Amino acid sequence: MKKILLYTFMAASGIFASCNDYLDCEPITSVSTTVYLYSESDLAAYAAKFYNDSENEDNGEYGNILPSHGSGSYNMGLFDDDNGTDNQTADTPNKLLVKGQSYVGDDNLWYKYFRKIRATNYFLQTVIQRFENGEITGNDANIKHYIGEVYFFRAYIYFMALRNLGDFPILKEVVTDDYDAVREASKRRPRNEVARFILSDLDNAYNYMLPTAPVTNRLNRDCAALVKSRVALFEGTWEKYHKGTEFVPGGPGWPGANMDYLKDFNINIDSEIKYFLEQAVEAADIVAKAHPILNNDYAAMFNSVDLSGMNEVLLWRKYSLNSEATSYHFVVSYLQRNGGGNVAFTRSMVDSYLMKNGLPIYANNSDFQGDDSYKNLFANRDPRMDQTILKTGDLLSDGPNLIEYIKKDGQGYFYRAPIFEGQVENGNATGYCLRKGLNTSGSMQTTKESYTGCPIFRAAEAYLNYLEAYYELHGNLQGNCDTYWKALRSRANVDTDYQNTINNTIMEKEKNDWGSYSAGAQVNATLYNIRRERRIELAAEGHRMNDLKRWRALDQVQNAHIQGCNFWEGISQLYTNPQPEDAASTLAKMTLIEYGTTEETANVSSRNDQYAEGKYLLPYRKNKANIGFNGLNWNTAKYLYPISNREFRLTTTVAGSGDFDTSSIYQNPGWTKNDGTLPVGD
Fold first, then answer.
1. What pTM, to 2 d.p., does this model score?
2. Structural domains present in the chain
């Protein structure tokens, strides 16, 4: 039976009916324990709240945990999560990469995570004891499954905290409102302990959950194993590449060393790295072996309405306009508008795609045709490129609504990227538009609701996690590496001889790929190509920034300038002299105003720009007001987010004291304890 995640969970069994009032209207501390959480349906309904993808933080204890396309939100959902990396960009860069743009207190992540963890702890400390006492009515296997779901969600929330904040309090019970109790509970534990706690929760989730959920809209144990491999790989590589820095417990300058309660803390960092990588290999192998056949149609996993027949998809969100649980997004609506949505791929991303023969584009006999036109650029490339990025002639919709290029057949086609679009949300910054997620049905035309499914967990990630963890652990490609790598290549219809790719990789030519670096130096060709495979397979699925952080791949990003398409050697003609084939009407000609050439407002970067190489579009350099105009610069403090001053004020030795140095919490490296301050060096 397929594992489907329905956005609102109302249709499956009516489980909200019995306890909706409790969940929606009362704080958990005031819920009557004499009537609630004593039945299987109560447990199912409580756990269901954590699946909510609403952006409304009024439901702060619940929701906004798992990836989604949003709840009726005007955005690109999952597919814009990689914006602000070397993979893809909006019209402005990620503030993390620009000096003077990130401040203490911008977002109180600590508080958000605490609220969500509290809701999971309330459930677990209440329900487990009742279940052991035989006090909960219903099917025991199903009851255990819902307990496992909440273990999973607690682990996932903690993983969010680990990635963004590092060291974090380990809380297993609801904390009272007593000041001293809160202060004590707020004490951060070293990140390796937090990661071990997460893995323990995921083990519990795996052991409690069923292989197939009781209803077709919930998590299952394979999801727990996959996320375990993700967490373990993250922590193992974080500790490996940040070893010897203040970002690893016990490293020089680690702020936890200054806390009296951690004075006896000891760590063997190499043993910890080995442990996490071993756990990643083991967990990834479980999922990969359970899903030995990947979905034959790569694109279908992202552009289909129904993902239920796809074994590779472990969990997905269902959207529908034809049910009591109506839910929708606008992803397709944006994509059908000439590939807009303010999601644009970079030249670095495009160049990382191999040829179909498995060779890098610069290799001898690669058969690369150049990048002066979409036709040449896409010729003979890894088919995942065509399934991920739009090219001239691609069908956008079988209806004409708001599509620029309409053939005489009445259908709308992609012709040129909307780089001059007045509305940012409909534009494209680089000339390389997203195709992944595009459904061409006229029923999801621009301005109309979209209802394609959103994949959350895919078995292909387990293959990638295994490859990377195994190689990081052993330094070779033995074990099941050959099987899993070839399976990924075979599904993509790319030559499966990955060793030939490695042998023909010249690292000097891969410098534009930030993922080719760790700690300021390039990695070897084998590890790089494992990372390249991950980059391509998971494009636009929200993994890139976390990957770059755990690899410590941002150190060398100094005065970096993102490039887009080769605009001036050919693609510019699509704007100045458009001649689409069999067009129903003439496309508008556009006047190109290069930055720095006139007093008028520029609409395109200059071909003579020192960073353009005479031909490439520069998304941040057509307007000096763009925060990225002077380049991207990484500050190592930003590997972790700061903790807001609010948390220091609430945890001083004396309540109400302004002496933040007495707080039970320590700040992350490179940040002060005062809101509104920049990291050191910014």
1. 0.95
2. 5-303 (1.25.40)
